[in-house]
């Protein structure tokens, strides 16, 4: 090999080519002869280097794209996570705000319930006082439901209806009650054992679990709704009690005025003028409670006035177990045997039977007087005067004040009399009236427990 290389590297001073000029004298020339294998190796190395450079460039380009995509995905995840956090934060704020609003709403409602409880307690006291006043004038409320105003009309089974004013076929035992307010079902604010203040005294603080707080507020709201419903029911009960008192009182007034209309037309007209009661009823509500209360109060005042007047009318019986022997009106005089006006009513009774005043009043006469014999005269309210004649004994003196049922004398036969009896007269403004009408009215008023 060394020999071949030396042979190859020769100096040729006479070398010439047509295109290249001959080298100058003294210049050395080196000639290389390359084989095909060497060319192939060089070409392969160039291709390998080119591929390596291209691969490196492609790798870095691809790596940059992958990193950019990864960064974009990471940024998107971060943004999405941040948005989720913002939504959760907003929801928490909303829940907390809603809880605060609900709590404030509950507190406002609790204060309203407390106010309504105070009003209900006051109303309860008013109704209790009204019931007591009604009892004082003879209006007793039963715990039973009121009787229907009239009987049903004739039906297919043949049951007939009585007249609206016919009360002859109603009944049932009534018992007086010690505590009418409770018997009527009226309750005070503590009837349910629930104190609205407990809601305010045990508030639920704002906690991380807003849903639990909202649930607690919902439970409190349900409790408040139940209390409100109970208070409303008690309002209706108290209003219904007042309506019952008003209706019963107005009915009693009409009964008394209807009974006394025939015997005291002038007094009756005056009473009606000054005791105007009644009027339309309004639906039960808190707003019209004062109107209903005013109506009941007016009715009770009117009943007291009417009852006061009626109790001073001479409507009681002047004698017990006496039979009427001669009525009021024209009759044949037992002594003259001719028609004459009998200005009173005669009661046949045993000698010495007790005679009673028929109304409260003042004794104006207590002595013997002509054909009346021993007589007592009592002056009553509204211009009425009663006479008790033919007595065997006088039990009062002039100027004495007597009440209805007080003893004024004893039955006798003094004066113009055919036998032991009581001659009883009722006069108003010196004009005689028929005692039978007063006695009949007295029986009806007694039936009213007057």
Write the layout of secondary structure elements.
Blueprint (H helix, E strand, L loop, with lengths): L1 H7 L27 H101 L43 H4 L13 H5 L8 H51 L4 H10 L14 H22 L12 E4 L2 E4 L6 E4 L2 E4 L5 E3 L4 E8 L5 E6 L4 E11 L6 E2 L4 E5 L9 E8 L2 E3 L1 H13 L3
Antiparallel strand pairs: 1-4, 2-3, 4-11, 5-10, 6-7, 6-9, 7-8, 8-10, 8-11, 11-12
Helix pairs in contact: 2-5, 5-7
Structural class: alpha+beta
Shape: rod-shaped
Main beta-sheet annotation: 10 strands, antiparallel
Q: Residue share in helices?
A: 40-55%
Mean pLDDT: 75
SSE topology string: HHHHHHHEEEEEEEEEEEEH
Residue stretches low in confidence (pLDDT < 50, at least 5 long) are: 1-19, 143-164, 166-177, 204-208
Distance between the termini: 165 Å
Provide a brief overview of the structure.
With 450 residues, the chain is an alpha+beta fold. The protein is 47% helix and 14% strand.
What would your notes on this structure say?
- The chain has 450 residues and is an alpha+beta fold.
- Among the domains are: 109-147 and 174-310, no CATH class; 323-447, Distorted Sandwich (Glucose Permease (Domain IIA)).
- The chain is built from eight helices and twelve strands.
- It has helices spanning 2-8, 36-136, 180-183, 197-201, 210-260, 265-274, 289-310, 435-447; strands at 323-326, 329-332, 339-342, 345-348, 354-356, 361-368, 374-379, 384-394, 401-402, 407-411, 421-428, 431-433.
- The strands form two sheets. Strands 1, 4, 5, 6, 7, 8, 9, 10, 11 and 12 form a ten-stranded antiparallel β-sheet that branches. A two-stranded antiparallel sheet has the order 2-3.
- α2 (36-136) packs parallel to α5 and α5 (210-260) runs parallel beside α7 (289-310).
- The protein is rod-shaped and about 210 Å long.
- Residues 1-19, 143-164, 166-177 and 204-208 have low confidence and may be disordered.
């Amino acid at each position: 090999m060394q020999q071949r290389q030396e042979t190859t590297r020769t100096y040729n001073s006479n070398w010439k080519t047509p295109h290249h000029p001959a080298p100058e004298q003294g210049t050395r020339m080196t000639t290389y002869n390359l084989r095909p294998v060497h060319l192939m190796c060089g070409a392969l190395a160039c291709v390998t280097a080119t591929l390596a450079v291209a691969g490196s460039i492609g790798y870095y380009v691809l790596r940059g794209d992958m990193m950019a995509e990864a960064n974009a995905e990471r940024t998107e995840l971060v943004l999405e996570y941040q948005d989720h956090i913002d939504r959760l934060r907003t929801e928490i704020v909303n829940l907390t705000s809603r809880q605060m609003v609900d709590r404030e709403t509950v507190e406002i409602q609790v204060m309203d319930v407390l106010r309504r409880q105070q009003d209900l307690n006051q109303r309860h006291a008013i109704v209790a006082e009204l019931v007591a006043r009604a009892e004082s004038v003879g209006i007793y409320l039963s715990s039973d439901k009121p009787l229907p105003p009239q009987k049903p009309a004739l039906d297919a089974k043949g049951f007939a209806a009585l007249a609206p004013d016919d009360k002859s076929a109603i009944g049932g035992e009534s018992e007086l009650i010690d505590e009418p307010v409770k018997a009527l079902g009226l309750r005070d604010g503590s009837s349910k054992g629930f104190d609205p203040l407990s809601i305010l005294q045990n508030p639920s603080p704002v906690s991380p679990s807003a849903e639990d707080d909202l649930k607690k507020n919902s439970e409190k709201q349900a409790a408040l709704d139940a209390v409100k419903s109970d208070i409303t029911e008690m309002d209706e009960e108290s209003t219904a009690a007042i309506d019952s008192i008003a209706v019963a009182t107005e009915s009693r007034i009409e009964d008394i005025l209807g009974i006394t209309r025939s015997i005291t037309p002038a007094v009756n007209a005056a009473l009606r003028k000054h005791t105007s009661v009644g009027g339309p009823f309004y639906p039960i509500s808190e707003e019209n409670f004062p109107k209903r209360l005013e109506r009941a109060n007016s009715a009770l005042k009117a009943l007291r006035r009417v009852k006061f007047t009626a109790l001073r009318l001479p409507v009681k019986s002047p004698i017990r177990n006496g039979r009427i022997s001669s009525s009021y009106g024209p009759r044949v005089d037992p002594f003259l045997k001719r028609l004459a006006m009998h200005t009173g009513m005669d009661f046949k009774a045993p000698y010495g039977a007790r005679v009673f005043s028929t109304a409260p009043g003042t004794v104006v006469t207590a002595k013997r007087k002509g054909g009346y014999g021993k007589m007592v005269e009592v002056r009553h309210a509204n211009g009425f005067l009663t006479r008790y004649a033919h007595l065997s004994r006088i039990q009062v003196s002039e100027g004495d004040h007597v009440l209805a049922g007080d003893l004024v004398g004893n039955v006798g036969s003094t004066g113009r009399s055919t036998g032991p009896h009581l001659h009883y007269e009722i006069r108003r403004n010196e004009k005689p009236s028929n005692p039978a009408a007063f006695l009949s009215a007295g029986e009806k008023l007694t039936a009213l427990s007057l």
